[in-house]
Amino acid sequence: MEIVPPRDYGDWEAYAALLRQSLGGPPEFWPRFLESVRSDALVLVAVHKRHVLSGAIGLPMPQLFGDQPVSSLALSGVATHPDVRKRGLSTSVIEALMEAGRSEGVAVSPLWPSTSRFYRRLGWEVAGRSASCRVATRALAGLSGSGEAWRDPGEEVREAQRDWARRWNGSLLRPDWWWVARHPEPAPDATFRYGWFQNFRPTGFLAYRQEVVGRETEIVVSEMWGLTSDAWRGLLGLLGSSETMFPTVRFAPHVFPHHHDLLWVLPEQDVTSQSGYNWMLRLVDVPAALEARGWAPGATGRVDLAIDSEEERFVLEVDQGRAAVSPGGEGRVRWGRGALAAWYAGGLSARRAARLGLAAGATDDLDVMDALIDARPAFMPDGF
Amino acid sequence: MNEVVEPRHDRDWEEYAAVSARSFGLPPEREGPFMERARLRAVARVALEDDHVVGGGLFLPAGQFFGGRSVPAGATSSFAVLPQARGKGVAGAICEALDQEMRDSGLVVSPLRPATTRLYRRWGWEVAGRAARHQVPTRSLARLRAAGTAVEDPGAEARMLQRSCAQAWNGPLDRPDWLWDWNRSHHDEQAITYGWTEDAALTGYLSYRQRPHSGWGYQIVVDELWTATPDALAGLCRLLGSHHSQVEVIDFEATALPFDHDLAWLLDDQHVTSTGGLAWMLRLVDPVAALEARGWPETIEGRMELEVEDRLLGSRQLVLEVAGGKSQVSEGGSGVVRIPSGTLAAWYAGGLSIARAISLDLVKATFEEAEFLDELTTDRPTWLPDRF
Q1: What are phi and psi of A171, to 5 degrees?
Q2: What is the DSSP string of A202-227?
Q3: Per the CB < 8 Å rule, is B279 touching A120?
Q4: pTM, entire model
Q5: Global ipTM
Q6: Rounded to an integer, what distance in angstroms lies between the CA atom of residue B208 and that of residue B222?
Q7: For chain A, percent helix, then strand, then coil, each to nearest 5?
Q8: Measuring CA to CA, which residue among B379, B381, B203 is closest to residue B299?
Q9: Of A189, A233, A274, B122, which is the most buried if we count CB atoms within 10 A?
């Protein structure tokens, strides 16, 4: 068995089949997805003779933390053939992928896990949550905003999305291939995209599909964001205009953060949310990740960190929003590697980590760490 | 409607109980005892029409923790109007009467769990936090390990532990003793309570009910779970997990775990399903006194000029000055941040940042002003773990 990039068309085809078998999806989805990312992604498969037994995809995309881009490899498409599971194949493929990423300067790796237990063992930790929300369409019908909706907007919405992404800790700076992979042209059947424009400037975006199963109909929103209150209200109103045919609108898990805004936008509490959708983060290169992140405005402080039972010690010094990391120090705050990633993302405060037994240190040191993290909520609004 | 008064005699209370039962779809035999207890503790106002009660509301005096300090609060509850009297301003008149009564009594904030946000928003409440019910497969709790011992019925010491833990949040009530009994009185089932001890010190408290259901085994509903250490949390969850042979899923009420619960980090896999997302709301009944009564981060110092708009109190310009964990509020200033009293309440509770409120058009302020204001209230998470 060896771990290599797909060697030929046969390997790509076999990996696409393995992805469908392991993760589901319509027959055309995985071949199309692999085709759209193959020239940019880092893909490794475990092969034995002509058989693809396991595989994973690393999608290089900068990830924003503290309004600074951090070199990131988003992990996706982890799949192993059922016959050979529980033999460490996925672990080997993932570690090879991370090592390859590290050698190219990757500092962090996010993922949407199907199981947190497995990824936790490899150093990932729950960094943030999102919710799937369901709203009665009629509750949106009365909303409106200044501006207008344009069907199938062009590439100008990508720049506006980057502005919106800066509001969060964890959003990806989407390269053009991401848009091609996630919003292919032409749009699949019953899928619609709208931009919201104010004074010819794009301020919002909405992508949804209409689902009809028997007599049940529903609108499923796969992406929605707005730079202005008018964009939010306008796009929600646009969804509300389908109230006669589609009684409910469901927002997919990565559309809204756990603490979504709908409670303040809607006149009544007509939204039901179901959470339990977590995203995880791993610090692939701890010093590089710490130095690349942005910190709270004006934050200054020094922390002596020990990671994974004193295995590694670092001194983190932040001055006016920039960090320097040096090896050594007293190891005054002890962290598991995964929990440190959750703190880094702004999803788990140092105080809370200590309360959960995931970090240990003097209260003053924990408070210094929490003062360093900026106020942006931890949210990854990107599916991959 | 003729007038809004304090319930005058037994008949007013009985009629109020009937209005409340009808409005909330409860059997009258359940609402009657509730009102009997309310008479002893609550301040109520009822609306009369032809000398009969057509609506009513009450508040329970207690404290509410914000920034680590107990702020005098009137927890609003049992707001009800008969169907034939709705849409005639009855609820508004009751609201106004209770609001004045709270201010006269020195109660400066008012939390509530709304059946409708639209009505309360009009009277100055705003969504301050959320609540969700969480479900966890019992077996996934059984795998947890912890140092310490479970003890049955930990007694009054549990109340001290709860009070100490509650101060780490923005929003829990500073419960008087009677409110403990009040909370339990909402359920028909007997509460089972456990403490967790480590080195002879109580570090955790758990209260749950066993509820029969039609299928195999029974149901467990957790009402309270307060823990001061990781072992207490894991230990008491493991105790719940020990029921796995009879109970498939543990239900945590919104009073037992916050919306942002810790189980995502405690359990080895993502086995928690949270549903709901319903709101609790807050009103600053006396904004000046509320701002001065709250605790603030010790390390932050600064000043902000606000213009607070309130339907009942009118528009006021205030200067908020914070230093050393305390604040002073004076009339005046230029009102550079224009904020409705509801948005001010949601920010006060830590549930809505000013930066977010700007993007939702709920306040007029710059992001620079938001940065200072948001540092003041986001040091603790927001949660209302009390029933009333």
Answers
A1: -75, 150
A2: EEEEEEEEEEEETTEEEEEEEEEEES
A3: no
A4: 0.91
A5: 0.85
A6: 4
A7: 30, 35, 35
A8: B379
A9: A233
